[in-house]
Each structure stands twice: as C-alpha cells, then as structure tokens.
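User: I'm curious what two different proteins look like when written out as structure tokens. Can you demonstrate?

Assistant: Sure. I'll show them one after the other, since each token string lines up with its own sequence. Here's the first protein:
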Amino acid sequence: MPNAVARSSALLLWTLIPAFFPTFPRLAAQDVAVGNPVWLGDYPAPASLSVFKDGIDPAYPPEMKGSGSIGYATVERFITRDGHWLDLSTQATLAPFQEATQEGDSLHPGVWDSAIWIWELGPKVIEAFPLQSYVWIPVIFNPASASIGNADATPRLLAVSPIIVRLRHLETAVVHVRVSLDSLGNVLQVTQPTPAAYKVYLPYIERNLHRWKFAPARKQGHSAPAEIDLPVLLQPLSAGAYFDHLPKVLRFGAVKYPESMARSGVRGDVLISCIVDEQGHALDPFVFGSNNPAFNENAIRATLGTRFRPGVLKGRAVNTEIILPISFHIDPADQGVYAISAGGDFSDPKNRGAKLGNALAPVYPFALLRDGVSGGAMAMMLVNTEGRVIALKSLDATRPEFEKALEAALEGFTYSPAMVDGEPALAKVRDEVDFRPEDISNPEILAALDLEKKHPSSIHAPRELDRPLALISQSQALYPLSQLKAAKAGNAVVEFLVNEKGNVCLPRVVTASTEDFGYSAVQAVSAWIFEPPSVGGKPCVVRIRQSIDFKPPDASLFDP
C-alpha cells in the first residue's frame, strides 16, 4: 500500500510567527501596498525574514479605477537553500487584483508565462538562513474612497495575515463577510459570510480578522465607526511548508501540438494536477484548468511521460500532489481563446466581458452520431462574480439531445468575471455548437464508430483482458445545475469503448435517475484515460459499463 499523498491541506501543525504586519509608507488613494513576507512553517522562523532585492510595484488595475472595492492578493513562495523560488501560487479576492500582481517569468519560457512570476531574494537572506523557507506575501489594493486626504473616507486596509484552513476541495475560496469597525479601526464583529456554505469557517475568520489592521473611516475629518463588505481568502496550507525538497522536473514528456489544431495555430494552456510518486513518476493526472479542450489529452500524455525528482519529506521520498502547467503554441504570439459576454468587450478594461478560463468539448450523443444525424444547439450561461456558471438557459436546439449535451459541457466552463464600471458583475455568455458527423476529424472516434457499426463482435469484454483495466486519468462528474432545487442524490450507468491507446470513445447513457445525470456522466467519462488494454499481448478495444453516483453540493455555492 503506497504511503499517503502529501497534499496542500496536509494535517501537519503550522506556526505563524508574529511581527508579520508590514510597515507601509504614507499612501495616496487608489493604491497598491506590498507587505513584507510572512513566515509559514512547522519550525522556527529565521532571525530576519526575506527582503526583496528587486521589489515589485504592481499597478492598480485600470478597470478598477473609481471602484469602491477593498481587496488583496497573496503570493505564496517556497524558497530553496540556494534562493530559488518554487511552489509558485498567487490568489486574489478579485481577478483584476490577481492579474495586476502577476509578472512574466523569463526563466520558464513556454510554461504558461502568464501565470508564473519571479521576485528575487537579496543575498543576505541566504547567508543568514541557509535553509528552505516558506513565505506568504500580501499585496493590498485600497479604493479611491479610502483616500487619506479626504475629510470623508471609508476604512483603509493596512495589513492582513493568512487565513489558512482545511478546505473541503483543497482550493482557495473567496468569502465575503460584513465587518464592523470602531473609530480606531479595530474589528468589533464579523457576520454574514457569503456563500453561506462557508459559514462553518466564520469563527476562524473572525479570530484571524482581529489581527488585521485598518485605518478607520472618517466623517468630516474625524475618525468614525463603520461597516464594510470585506472579501477574504480561505486558503489551504501548501505542503511546501514542510518539504525538504519539492518535486523537480528532470525530463519533460513530449509536448505534441494536436494535429487537429495545427491549422488554427492558437495557443493552448493547460494545468494538469497529478501525483508524483516516490520513484518520480506522474500518477492520476487530470485537467485542473484548460482554455481549450483540444489540448487536454496531449497535456495528460506529456505529464505521464515527464520524470521528476520526487518530493522529500523528513529525509524520505513521498507521494506529492502538484500542478504542472503545460503550454502549446506554434505562433509565438499569444492568442488566447475568449468568450464575450453581452454588453461588454475587452477594449475597455472597466467594462469587459467574462473571459473564458476553462472549457469542455460537448460530447456528440452516441445514437445521433451512429445514425448520422446533424444538428446544433445554443445556450446562454449566467456567470457570477466569481466566474462560476450558476444558471443555463437553452436558446435553440434542433434536437433535445444536442441541447442536453451542450448544457453538460457548459456547466464545466469557468471564467474570469465580467467587469462593469470597474466592479465584478454578473454576465450572460452565449455559446453555440454545431454537431455534424462530417466535421469529426479525430481518427480514434471514427475508427471506434466504424468498429461499433461493422464489427461489434470484435470488441472485447473486460473479463477477456490480460489484466484488469487501470484508470490513469479521471475527471469528476458535475452535479447538474437543473437538479440543484431538488437536491437529491442520483446515479447514472454509462457505456463506452476504451481503444488501443486507452482513450474513451463513444460514451452513451444506459440508465440514469434523470437524463441530466446521464449527460453529466457521459461528459465526465469522455475525458478519462486508461492503461492500454490488451488480449493475448495484443492491443484491443474493450467495452466498459460504469456506474457513477451524484451527491448534491451546497446550493449556496451557486448564488449570484
């Protein structure tokens, strides 16, 4: 039995050393303040924390000019003994604040340079503390309404500390709370967490916010109590805080640009989550984020071919969960794939549409593909201020099957939220797709369809295989939005072919509690990858039936 995977929410104790609040210069309104690093770890902090040899000076996002929103970004860094950054991660309460904090990284060309950053350490840090360290750096954005020169002003956020918790999904969450401040800027009360699903963390948020620093509100030149809506980040603790060494890439697997995308020449960016085992192999890879699903399979296979130096914890190699960014490009120009929401575009950053972050390709309904039925569907998504699709409305469809197939894919889309007058806003995003058998260029799907039609008896059963079929990449089925109101558990049984390469082809529904559970299950299994099956030592195609269970999520996660 392999040892447990070291994850970012590891149940190890962590220590936050005091004196982490930075001292800021006197600042103008609509400004950005970069705090000093905060020490995180399970061993004592060095005598002096890191200082920046080449500091950063992020500009206030132009789309947020005139906004009244307080916000902040956090930058997590694991620093090796020789002063190199590892475990790069930046999160923020709003997408524009995250984008403003990010800088390009010339040391990692071709590895999603829009999302990796380098800030240099001064040499004194390494001389004073020649061990690995783990730091957390705050970047605070104050609105114009918090001007220090006005007689009337809203509270100004001066210093923040990490709110690190054990999150259920191991991802950073943005939670809005109502904060009451006295005339000295002290926190009196914290209430009304939104989404309500995170109410369980309210006592922990409250305890941490009492350590934050605010300049009080002013009325007619005098300090005054106030209430503000404050976004806070709930973050998992990175396992990098405890590692002797994080995994390191020794040899990248072959990153092949998909032939089907060669004509378009667009850039593809994919984030792959995987486990690096004790021998340095990548296990259980799945797509964590992607701007174009056409690149997903090749990214997974490149990850499987990558070899790592394994993570080392307390002197021994351990299984370690990491996220590996992979980029595909032919033309060096950055050609992202975007969706434009109604009422906005990207020429005006203060009033822009929702920008696509993760996309899924709809699955052609099997029976219609088999019978050569063409058609199309169009739907409208409602995207909330966190970039999550919270509602769908069908606008047009030639067949109900095409409508359901499109909706199942759209529910997995994510966005950077739209902006209206510098504030995150709800957005309507329209998407449409044509289903035409003659447009299918994937040779694996065509070969599977031909086999299913002409030689179904040559498709093997699982019992005939040389060894049990092993799943190496699995995406989770999403609970359908249409079922949130009923909030009942569900089930779907799907059937599909696994071809000689281990890819899933032609998934279809056998039974389902409701048809929406069936389409969601089909959408999920379409991205699964198995070890290549064989019979008598020869590659083969096998027919599989899989049961998938659904449990309702907290509906408040889908609030506007």
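Here's a second, unrelated protein for contrast:
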Amino acid sequence: MLLFFGLMLLGSADAPDRFVSFGTDIYVYRVSADNQIQIVQLHAQARIESNQFGSGAPLVSPNHRWIAFLRKGDVWLYETGSGAEKQITHFAKPYTKTFASVDVLMVTWSQDSSRLMVNVVPGELECIDCDRPDYKKRRADYGHFVYDLAQSTTKKISVPANMEIVQWFSDGRMLGLDAKTSGVVLEAKSGTARPIAGVHDVVQLSLSDDGTVAAVTIGLKEHSQIAQIDLETGDKKTLSPIGGFADYQMPRISPDKTHVAWRHEIKPPEDYAQPKSQLFVDGKVITECGTIVVSEWIDNQRIIAKCGNDISVLAASGERLGLLKK
C-alpha cells in the first residue's frame, strides 16, 4: 500500500515534474511541484550490477525528459512525458555453460541531455561455489560507447583508463576521479586526462551543474570529512568535523552550488547492530533515520531522502514537504 501527502510551499504549481533515482535500486520517483511523490512504472530488470565505471540503476537525463534503464541486459529509454519506451543498445549477451555474459553499464548523460554514455564490459568470470571451471571471456567489442538521441546512432569513444566519470559536458570535457590513484580529481578531453591541481584525497565526488564547485568526502586514512572545493582555484572549505572511517559520506551539492548535503553514520557499539544516520544540509541536521539514509537533490531548494521504506521530500531548511510510504 502506498500512502503520500504533499505541500505546495516552494516553486510554482505549474512547474514541470522532476525525476530522481538514488542509484541503489531500480526505482525512479516522480516529484510534482506540490511535492506529490509517485513511483515511475519502468519495465526494468530487477538485477543490477554497478561499479565505479558504470551502473545498472536507472539514470535520469539532466533535462528530466528521459530515463535510461536496463531490460534483458541492454539499455532502453523511457520518455517521461509520453511513457514511450525504446531499446537503444544491442550489446548484451547472457551467460552460457562456458562463456560469461556481456553486460552494459550506464555511465552518464551529457549535460545537455543529447547523448548517453554506456560501458560494455564482460560479466564476472569467477564461478563462485561452483564445482566446475570459471567462465571464459566472450569475444565482444568492449569499451565505452555514446548513443546520440538526435541521430539514433551509437559510436565508440576513447575514455581515459581508470577514470570514474562523474560529469560530461556538451563539448566533450569530462570530470571525475582516478579510480586507481585514490583521491585524485581528473579533467579529461579527447581521451586524455590531467589531475586538477590541489585536489587530492577525495573518495566521493559530487559536482555543481557548471562543474566549477565540488562537494567531496576527504578520506584521511581511517578518517572522513566533508568539504567543498572550488575546482577553478583549488580553495577548500571543510563542512563537517573529522570523523572515523565512513562516518561522513555521500556528499551531494545542489545544482546551483548553494547547498551541500551529506550523511553522518552513527555506528552502534555492537558490531552486529544496524547503524543509524543523519542527513545534514549546510551543517544542520534536517532528518534522522533508524537505518542508512540516502538522498539526492530534486532542484536547488528541495531534496529527496529515503529512510527504509519512507521517501520524503524536504526543503533545504529541513521542513518536510511530501512523504511516500511504500
């Protein structure tokens, strides 16, 4: 049973709906201007695989017109206005008795929503708990590909090795993390990457829409801290105290870079107990959760948070504007 309420406190009643995925499961949420929350009915596959080089979770375009999702291993697009769906890749292959699968991971949308980047990768080769040999890697055209929505074409592109892409601009410039050398923020174009001077020890990265300001988790050996970094000057501003390992994580900067949210995990003294968590915005606790809270910005003033089965729309100030109970 789904229960919800919404308050019209921010924005215009005729503003377009927004769409949000937390990137941890197959669900996408439609949020109206009056903060009503609905689950988008995608015909997506239940099983998703994710790593630092791509994800099987649904991916919403920056203009909120499209949702990319996986079905039978390949990428499909859902148009949010009409509900129409269409398949756009044909790379996926299932496991056989001998060969591993060919999987497709979604990487990112271009900032102008005109192109979608995917990563074609081999499935897991190790057959865990099997009384048989491991799987063999299938012959396939692995690597990064771009689907152009206007042309309905797919072409292979060059992406720097070991780069975890976070943002991709219409001119081809990319920003992300070096997945091999922990903590280095990279800028790349035409397949070549360079470190951004003065930015290091970063383990999680969230970028403003224009790519000039980052909210990051700084990993200092067994410690953690949230900070804001100006990527043009290298100036760093700490936003949280220094905590233990993974105490402070999941930074999220608002599109216009005016707000930063993050999660504070409160670990119980017993190792087997479930940790609790708090969601901070601009240094203030705006909600608490008896389990692990996840969040994403809806727009510049509203954030959506998931705590267990409850989905909340919150103002940056902390006021609850909408609630969906699954």
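A detail about the second structure: The first strand starts at residue 3 and ends at 6.
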